[in-house]
Design goal:
globular, single chain, binds adenosine-5'-diphosphate, five-stranded mixed β-sheet, two-stranded antiparallel sheet, binds magnesium ion, alpha+beta
């Protein structure tokens, strides 16, 4: 009986992970598609062309990395921990998101202090924040709104805050966030938050969600501040 239980648990983890891979590979594919569309505009200046090309390459690399990351989610493995400047990461995420956002009439605003250093895995941080931000954009699909990504210091922590002015959630919905397959979307898989939450926890981050129906949602993520 015990063996069977272990086996079925393993199966479950395996199926969750393979579904997650498919889901998360779609994020970089969608943004690469968007940038290639922009690249086919003939009136584009060379600087922009170069930047869009660079982002495409980075996103394709990210897609490849995501596959590796998901495969390693199931087992303990040595993390690639480095000193991350949260401001730099916000800037990168902004570049990835803004063209997608502009197409839907959403403004993306960023604001961050200097020297917000944390210890973490760069790709995982980017991935987890992009998952949360994309949900914010999707929550504003039918109305114009603002997505804000901000970061600041609070005591010995770095707070990374992602807020939207979208449809919001009930307390019940907020409490379900992070459960595998929990989704209210037609084409949602309900895996983005599960992945984000587990990656953030893996970097010793804590997540606090405040949401109000019809008003919007704030995700406050705190990481231990790395002192220089
Ligand atoms: P998916 O986006 O595929 O549905 P997620 O795990 O990313 O799966 O999100 C789960 C659910 O949580 C979403 O379907 C949505 O109902 C809700 N949700 C997450 N973020 C937000 C947000 N910023 N505003 C409103 N609802 C949200
Ligand atoms: Mg999602």
């Amino acid at each position: 009986l015990k063996k069977e239980l272990i086996f079925s648990e393993k199966m479950n983890i395996a199926s969750i992970i393979s579904a997650s891979v498919a889901h998360e590979i779609r994020n970089p594919l969608t943004s690469v598609r968007g940038f290639i569309q922009l690249l086919t505009q003939t009136e584009l200046n060379p600087d922009k062309k170069q930047m869009y090309g660079k982002i495409c390459l980075e996103e394709i690399d990210r897609a490849e990395q995501i596959i590796n990351d998901y495969l390693s989610l199931a087992k303990p493995y040595p993390e690639i921990l480095e000193e991350l400047d949260i401001g730099e990461e916000i800037q990168y995420i902004y570049n990835v998101l803004k063209s997608v956002a502009n197409l839907t009439g959403v403004e993306v605003e960023i604001k961050y202090d200097i020297n917000l250093l944390v210890l973490g895995d760069r790709k995982k941080l980017r991935q987890s924040i992009i998952n949360i931000a994309k949900n914010g954009l999707e929550a504003m699909r039918d109305k114009r709104g603002v997505l804000k990504i901000e970061a600041y210091k609070r005591n010995n922590e770095v707070i990374l805050s992602i807020s939207d002015t979208g449809i919001g959630m009930t307390n019940d919905q907020v409490s379900r966030l992070g459960m595998p397959y929990y989704s209210n979307k037609d084409k949602g898989t309900g895996l983005g938050m599960m992945v984000s939450f587990s990656l953030i926890k893996g970097m010793l981050g804590k997540i606090n969600v405040k949401s109000e129906l019809g008003k919007g949602t704030v995700f406050d993520i705190s990481f231990p501040l790395l002192k220089i």
